[in-house]
Predict the structure.
Amino acid sequence: MRVALLLAPALSVIVVLFGGGMAVAVSRSVGWMPVIGLTDPSLAAYAVVFADPDFWASFALSLHIALTSTALAAVLAVASALLLRHSFAGRGIVAFLFQLNLTVPHLVGAIGILYLFSQSGAFARLAYQAGAIAVPGDFPALVFDPYAIGIIAQYVWKEAPFIGLIVLANLQSVGEDWEGVARSLGAGPWQRLRHVVLPMIGPGLVSACAIVFAFAFGAYEIPALLGASHPPAMPVAAYRAFTDVDLAQRPRAMAMSVVIAVVAGVAIWAYLRAARRA
Amino acid sequence: MRDIHTTVLAAAMTVLPALAAADTDDGDSLIGADWDTIVAQARGGEVNFFLWGGSDDINRYVTEYVGGILADDYDITLNRVGLNDTAEAVNIVLGEAEAGIDDAGSVDMIWINGENFRTMKQADLAWCGYVDTLPNGALIDWDNPSIANDFGLPVDGCEVPWSTAQFAFATNTALVEDPPRSIAELIDWVADNPGQFTYPAPPDFNGAVFVRHVFYHAAGGPDRLLGDFDQATFDAVAAETWDILNAMEPDLWREGATYPQSLSAMEQLFANQEVALTFNYEPASVGVNIENGTFPPTARGYALTDGTIANTNYTVIPYNSPNKAAALVLQNVLLSVEAQIEKADPAVWGARPGIDFGRADAAAQAAFAAVGRHPDVVPVAELSANALPELQADWIAAIEQGWLDNVGN
């Protein structure tokens, strides 16, 4: 009873604000919007969305952004955590620099990526000074590009320290005794990583990755700032439909938002499973 | 479902600070009321003005100049709420209407025109009929069809004009000595100068206006596009427009594989010399951008010989605004000759007036005539000699959707 009371403020925020928002999104996605005369619920908006090749292009792009960013960030994070758990000269400074990104807002990071990597950005200007390119168009397209390189770079830069911190905390709580045992039994470095370290940090790693995946799949601002105009990432496509001047487009926007929420929900389910095993 | 929605918004409302001053959500009691009474009701209150926030100069004019007058003369707090897209404010009002919040909305005024105004009218979200109550309403020339009609849709007293604008191009004279001065010349110029031109992807406001210029060009002028939407005419003209734009695509910036998603993104490309031309529905912006160092001093605005599209923009008061008296005072200040002259100053904003200075007194007319022009902004006379009308919103929506389906995919 006391636990329920103590949790009530946090739970009511989640249930009322988040749950309420989701309920509104679902109701609008099935075409329930009395103010403009939509009072006949149906799944028509979903049918339209799923029949639209542009939707699947956006879905594939968002999946690519989320999967690639998460995989790259995870590899970097594990490698960094393995280095940072040992003590060495300057470790404090390196650990500080490693965590610094966590405090920088995503939007600021995106502007930084833009200033550095655009075709008239800092690196393009250096390349021009070095005589490597003659006009901005000669510099490779790293932002607004079809492969979402700029978006993925931003997510990896921002999320590798996040995953890394969780893995590092795991590693430090596990200690190095198990690896010592494995070494004394003749296991090589790769065998120790594969059979000792990874299984022990696995649940923490998977749960951190699930959070990063759900975020990268559903976040709007980075693909809006760094993405190509077509196809738009899922959240950008949903927002465009939401701000379409034709009010009849609102159900389509909400259907796309519900799809984003479902994908994020699957990731969170994976997270909970992983957390339970931990 | 409705209950949950209401609960959510009710919960959100209770955490907001309580609103001060008199609640003036009842518009009927204000219409035709004595102006001093309205000012007295508005005194000590606040007004939430939602407007596109992408220009520092406009933001400064609204917050400091207009906000200053409201604070000093009327004791009203002006809250400027910056938007990326005016549809966001319309969405807020729409959401409130749906939740049954008919007298305590969070939006008191929106800077608006065209399709968003149509949405407000379509869903009955605009407060109408108060224009004659404004003392400065007498300065508005409702006999001018481009004032009385917002993108072909009759205003019907549901909004009041703020400024007029006309599309203009700009180039960097250090790089391009002789820029293309018509859409036909532009098409050839892009083919001769690959990678030097692009336009923001519709539904960006300015990108959509550029596409309409090409649409007018394909139609041989706007004459047969005026009036109600006509599918047969649209299909014929649209097919040619998409052919032109698709043929242009390989010679655009990034070979047309992507388009800038906003005017500010394109202005950055222009400032960084990634592209050689830019354009803006607000012709004065090139002067402002030179003065604040964004554009090089060699940038210069220019008009097209086959004309550019002109429009009027307005401010609208949502039906559920709880601060209608303060909103009326704000609107009256915006319409005043002092505020319109300040707004026309190229060092401030450079926007052309929404009022008819011919209706103002001689001193105001002289003051307006004395307002200078930035040397790099195309002269008003040169632009307005070839002003093209805007189309009705149905045309505009069809052109934007057609571009997305046929060119931007």
